[in-house]
Specification:
Elements lengths: L1 H11 L13 H15 L13 H15 L6 H11 L6 E9 L2 E6 L11 H4 L2 E8 L12 H13 L2 H6 L12 H7 L2 H12 L3 H13 L6 H27 L1
Antiparallel strand pairs: 1-2, 1-3
Length: about 250
């Protein structure tokens, strides 16, 4: 509703002077459905003998949905999509470990039941909580290989290329150039937006990430590699100039 629209515009204004954005489309909802399936992959309750077979189907669903989602047709669409999903990697799950005098129990994304927390002093009950980011949610689940989850998340990120660039300095999944992100920086308006979202990240990491990602584009993709290398050089030069000016101020 209107609250979502206000938040989306607020996110978009961080990098572009806009007053309104297009309404959510079927593509946005498809991306949301793929994200939901991705999160379901981290559901430990599916790790039982009778339900473990759902993991391959969920992985296939994420991949199929992502393949069906077209890359943004223009910079405005890329910005609109980013405004919706900009904070996806900020998603966290709170895990808890309860230890008492005769045992321990772990809970992924669920609060410990009250019965385990009774008589804390008498039973020496201790509770340790940990926040797990989206990129790390695929670890520790029987039946799900962490690389499969990471690859699925990386594929999902390419469907909202400005978000992919806006989080390029993340640890996992490591940023890699894709057809959709290259398409964004192949045009002057897209290049400008990409530069702005990169400036909001640690400068040294942004420069290093773009340089690494450009080197990783296979030489046989000559035009793609040229775009990646030229953009990396432009960003490095721009950031160097900005840092020199801020240092002299």
């Amino acid at each position: 509703g209107s609250r979502i629209d206000v938040v989306r515009v607020r996110v978009a204004r961080l990098v572009a002077p806009v007053d309104a954005l297009p309404e959510l489309t079927a593509v946005d909802w498809a991306l949301l459905a793929a994200l939901n399936d991705l999160l379901q992959l981290t559901n430990h309750e599916l790790a039982g003998v009778l339900t473990r077979s759902r993991y391959p189907r969920l992985l296939a669903s994420v991949r199929d949905l992502c393949e069906l989602v077209p890359a943004p047709a223009d910079v405005a669409t890329a910005l609109s999509r980013h405004a919706t999903f900009a904070r996806v990697l900020d998603s966290v799950r709170t895990d808890a470990v309860v230890v008492w005098w005769t045992g321990r129990a772990s809970f992924r994304g669920q609060p410990p039941p009250p019965r385990l927390l009774r008589w804390r002093q008498l039973r020496n009950v201790e509770v340790e909580t940990r926040r797990v980011g989206l990129a790390d949610m695929g670890h520790g689940i029987p039946g799900l290989a962490p690389p499969d989850f990471t690859d699925a998340l990386a594929l999902w990120m390419t469907r909202t290329p400005l978000t992919d660039l806006a989080t390029a300095t993340r640890k996992s999944p490591p940023f890699a150039w894709s057809a959709s992100t290259l398409a964004v920086v192949a045009t002057p308006p897209g290049r400008s937006l990409a530069y702005r979202v990169l400036l909001r990240q640690p400068h040294d990491l942004a420069v290093a990430t773009l340089a690494r990602a450009a080197r990783e584009v296979p030489p046989r993709f000559g035009r793609a590699r040229a775009i990646a290398e030229s953009f990396a050089s432009e960003v490095a030069a721009g950031i160097k100039l900005l840092d020199e000016r801020s240092g002299a101020a």
